[in-house]
Recover the amino acids of this structure.
């Protein structure tokens, strides 16, 4: 009976694992022409996993002796992860057909599913070893995804850089886990929290630092951000969109769970790390993006900047702060996917991708609808009211103020004005510069529908979702406290 309950609580991961294995066999025995069908089937598997979250998978408690946690917090994270993964699959076929001249490789959706399994394990981890296994499963799939276009030197370079630096970060994280285990005698989050209660050894503090350093790499927070611009630029655009959304959510919310559940009693110690990483990420993300001429590199620095803002909520260390992080990540996923969907539309007459910021010049005259959608994304990323992205920043700063971090919140708000510059520069380029060559028209109803949906979500109409989103995030945050 106990095993039956454990399997019900891990049902989403079981569905994704079985689906990935079945599709892997289908990919091995089918022709490349079947890749679209495999992609749509993978999306159906993700929908099935999301439906499986209803019931024990979101409220069952601890599974397998506490190694896995099926709670509302993990359920919230998995909905975002599965949605972003599905979008990354849907936006890929046309890109690969036009860029490489071949159909999307059927391994692509399979790797996305396997990465989703790893990310689900990450956000449901109740033990440091479960955390590490989930993180490595996600990372191994990501390394292959980054170098998916084997004939493209930039893609191969991105995959190699990501692999080498990712291996370094994994070693740092594993060393931190070994220190925590060595000085606490356990890897279970609940027992580790007990070890951090009261007077604790310097070994535990060093373990805390190394664990957060490893997690900072996965969420591309300063000073472990160095891989992000190169990987974002070199990886295929649908893969970059995936990297900027689902793994970012998994890494951020994993850090939240570790901070609150495993190291909650050491709030003063880890808050200093989070505050530094937050402010450094906000500054570097803003300053680094100013001189970028490639739109994908610019969005890479934007992701670093946004990670800094999300960490503001975590630094509060309160239930309100955790709920604010959840709200921020939900809105951030839509902003990121919407931005990269617009980048996918940037094609010349031959169907080749254009990634320069200068190519956006005068787009308001040549492609007014696309220019409006990108302007909404940019204003929302900048946190300019009345767009929905403003509410994301408002929520995390409100949580910081409520926690008494007035100076920190004031500095963060001031720095957000610096980051607004490069977003506004893109809007200025589209609406006030002389028109450049018009992008080739793209007739893809799926991409167009997702762009429209993202634009509507980020418009002032998104504020109607605040009661539902707020209640859901509060319920999810309560699961950690």
């Amino acid at each position: 009976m106990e095993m039956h309950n454990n399997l019900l609580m891990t049902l989403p991961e079981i569905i994704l694992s079985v689906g990935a294995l079945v599709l892997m066999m289908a990919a091995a025995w089918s022709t490349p022409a079947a890749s679209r069908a495999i992609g749509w089937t993978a999306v159906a598997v993700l929908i099935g996993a999301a439906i499986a979250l209803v019931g024990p998978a979101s409220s069952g408690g601890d599974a397998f002796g506490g190694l896995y946690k099926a709670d509302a917090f993990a359920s919230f994270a998995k909905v975002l992860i599965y949605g972003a993964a599905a979008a990354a699959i849907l936006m890929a076929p046309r890109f690969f057909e036009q860029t490489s001249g071949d159909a999307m490789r059927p391994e692509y959706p399979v790797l996305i599913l396997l990465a989703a399994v790893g990310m689900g394990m990450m956000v449901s981890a109740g033990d440091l070893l479960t955390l590490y296994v989930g993180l490595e499963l996600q990372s191994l799939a990501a390394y292959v995804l980054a170098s998916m276009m084997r004939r493209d030197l930039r893609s191969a370079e991105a995959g190699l850089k990501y692999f080498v630096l990712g291996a370094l970060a994994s070693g740092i994280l594993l060393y931190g886990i070994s220190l925590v285990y060595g000085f606490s005698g356990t890897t279970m989050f609940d027992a580790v929290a007990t070890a951090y209660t009261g007077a604790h050894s310097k070994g535990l503090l060093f373990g805390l630092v190394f664990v957060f350093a490893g997690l900072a790499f996965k969420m591309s927070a300063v000073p472990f951000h160095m891989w992000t611009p190169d990987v974002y630029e070199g990886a295929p655009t649908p893969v970059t969109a995936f990297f900027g959304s689902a793994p970012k959510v998994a890494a951020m919310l994993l850090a939240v769970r570790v901070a609150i559940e495993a190291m909650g009693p050491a709030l003063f110690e880890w808050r200093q790390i989070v505050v530094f990483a937050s402010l450094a990420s906000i500054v570097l993300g803003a300053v680094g993006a100013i001189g970028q001429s490639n739109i994908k590199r610019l969005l890479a620095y934007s992701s670093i900047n946004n990670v800094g803002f999300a960490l503001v909520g975590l630094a509060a260390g309160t239930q309100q702060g955790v709920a604010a992080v959840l709200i921020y990540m939900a809105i951030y996923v839509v902003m990121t996917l919407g931005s990269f969907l617009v980048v996918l539309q940037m094609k010349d007459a031959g169907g080749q991708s254009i990634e320069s910021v200068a190519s956006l010049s005068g787009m308001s005259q040549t492609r007014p609808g696309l220019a409006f959608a990108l302007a909404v994304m940019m204003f929302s990323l900048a946190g300019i009211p009345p767009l929905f992205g403003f509410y994301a920043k408002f929520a995390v700063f409100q949580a910081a103020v409520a926690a008494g971090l007035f100076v920190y919140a004031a500095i963060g708000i001031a720095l957000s004005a610096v980051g607004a510059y490069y977003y506004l520069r893109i809007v200025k380029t589209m609406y006030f510069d002389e028109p450049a060559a018009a992008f080739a028209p793209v007739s893809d109803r799926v991409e167009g529908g997702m762009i429209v949906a993202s634009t509507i979500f980020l418009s002032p109409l998104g504020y109607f979702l605040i009661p539902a989103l707020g209640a859901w995030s509060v319920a999810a945050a309560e699961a950690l406290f």
